[in-house]
């Protein structure tokens, strides 16, 4: 039928135009980010080697902000990744930034950032009428500390969530009064890792301009809610939650380590509580 064919053609054109605009927006925002953070990088992105481009993308997904300084929505970051994928494919780039292992770093950065944003209330939640219980909040609070630790210290030699001790991460203050967390865990005899001890690779600093997303504030809140008996250096870092607890209680956690199975399912739990669709793993 001619009318149906014309309508189908019109819808196809509209969809193509929408896809083109989406690709252009992703490319423009990524280029603006590169100019602001890496001003010496002037190459077209389709000629940048995969290792360098992967690092740029990981930085973009973690640090990029909108023009008003606010963070992007989780879905926006995923759309940007898809838009850049289309652009690179058009220019016959040799890798897929969404699938290939050469871009694992940026893929993980995007996944972790989406989880972080969802935990902090960003994104369109499909079940708005389903309010989080206080128990859910506790799970997300602890999950956020786990996420902060993994992002900041996951690259450090000897970092293992299931064996992490309270003394492995220390709260410190610089000479100028800026608080930071420092990885003090075992180096497992790695000479290169030892040389990094005390360097910026083993530290994460407070974000004073954004206390709601500050890893140091999350750590201090978690420390305050731990039982005093579990604040010694060799105590397990992650503790199980008390079965019955309320906001008035000073301590929200047991004197018992979080089980390995629950720790292994941390990302899945965060996604379920934060209404993030899709299959996610640690």
From TrEMBL:
It holds the Pfam family DUF3504. The keyword S-adenosyl-L-methionine does not apply. Keywords: Isopeptide bond, Phosphoprotein, Ubl conjugation. Residues 142-270 form the ZMYM2-like/QRICH1 C-terminal domain. The keyword Heme does not apply. Residues 1-20 are annotated as: Disordered. This is ZMYM2-like/QRICH1 C-terminal domain-containing protein.
């Amino acid at each position: 039928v001619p009318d149906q064919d014309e309508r189908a053609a019109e819808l196809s054109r509209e969809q193509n135009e929408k896809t083109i605009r989406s690709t252009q927006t992703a490319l423009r925002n990524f280029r603006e980010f590169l100019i602001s953070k890496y001003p010496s990088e002037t190459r077209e992105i389709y000629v940048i080697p995969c290792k360098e481009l992967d690092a740029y993308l990981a930085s973009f997904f973690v640090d990029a902000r909108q023009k008003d300084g606010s963070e992007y929505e989780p879905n926006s970051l995923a759309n940007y990744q898809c838009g850049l994928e289309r652009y690179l494919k058009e220019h016959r780039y040799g890798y897929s930034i969404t699938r290939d292992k050469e871009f694992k770093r940026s893929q993980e950065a995007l996944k972790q950032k989406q989880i972080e944003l969802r935990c902090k209330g960003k994104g369109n939640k499909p079940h708005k009428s389903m309010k989080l219980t206080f128990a859910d909040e506790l799970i997300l609070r602890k999950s956020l500390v786990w996420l902060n630790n993994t992002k900041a210290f996951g690259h450090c030699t000897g970092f293992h969530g299931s064996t992490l001790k309270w003394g492995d991460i220390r709260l410190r203050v610089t000479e100028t009064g800026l608080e930071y967390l420092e990885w003090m865990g075992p180096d497992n005899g790695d000479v290169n890792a030892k040389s990094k001890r005390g360097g910026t690779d083993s530290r994460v600093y407070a974000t004073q301009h954004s206390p709601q997303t500050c890893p140091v504030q999350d750590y201090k809140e978690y420390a305050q809610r731990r039982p005093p008996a579990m604040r010694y250096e060799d105590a397990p870092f992650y503790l199980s939650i008390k079965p019955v607890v309320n906001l008035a209680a000073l301590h929200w956690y047991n004197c018992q380590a979080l089980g390995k199975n629950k720790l292994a399912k941390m990302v899945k739990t965060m996604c379920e509580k934060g209404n993030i669709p899709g299959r996610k793993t640690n």
